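input
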Amino acid sequence: MAHTCITPCIELDISKFTDGTVDGTGVFDVMMQSAREHLKREHDAGRITGDRFADVYMTTMQAVLGQANQFVLMKDKIDYEVSILSRQATLLEEQANLAIIQTEVAESTKQNNIDLIASQLDKLNKEIVILQAQNTLTLSNIDKTNTENDVLTQRVKSEEAQTKDDVDGVPVAGILGKQMTLFDNQAEGYIRDAEQKTAKIMSDAFVTRVSTDYDQANASNAGLDDANINSVMHKLKLGIGLP
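output
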């Protein structure tokens, strides 16, 4: 059954340690080759002889075995750590790029919001201008309506002044007032003229009656007796302001 790692595994390759030959290219093989050359030189020089050479060789081989094993393990560990660091660097770079994108999006959104607010403010200002224009027009129409109402009111009063002596409790004055006064005076003049003509008729009748000794009874029947003449003369004097 294959072993599954939760985190990335360090896979050991034995060929890196040794390829199983004395002249191999594994770490242990190469290190032992160097160690043998050193031991051979010491043996040839007579500094390591007899049974001691075998002890030194075994000790050296064990040391090389440990060092080679440590070297291979450290190398794989370093490679693994470098791989992790590389991945972390890639992740950091991606996070930095994401942060840049997020910043750009935020700035773009901010600018879009600013543009939207500016557009809304511009629209609102235009609506305010329209409302102000409409308000000015409304006020102008109100002024016009008030003026027309004043004109109509004055016209109504003028119409009333032509048929009434006072309007709203105020005597009619101005041209209409003078015209009405003139009409009243003319009407009064016609009445006075009629009274004077009637009085003259009555006076002439009286003179004729007196000069001809006209019968009083007949004069009464004709409405030309003294009482009738006095009544006409009294009305005439009242018309001209005499007692």
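quick obs: Residues 14-113 form one domain.
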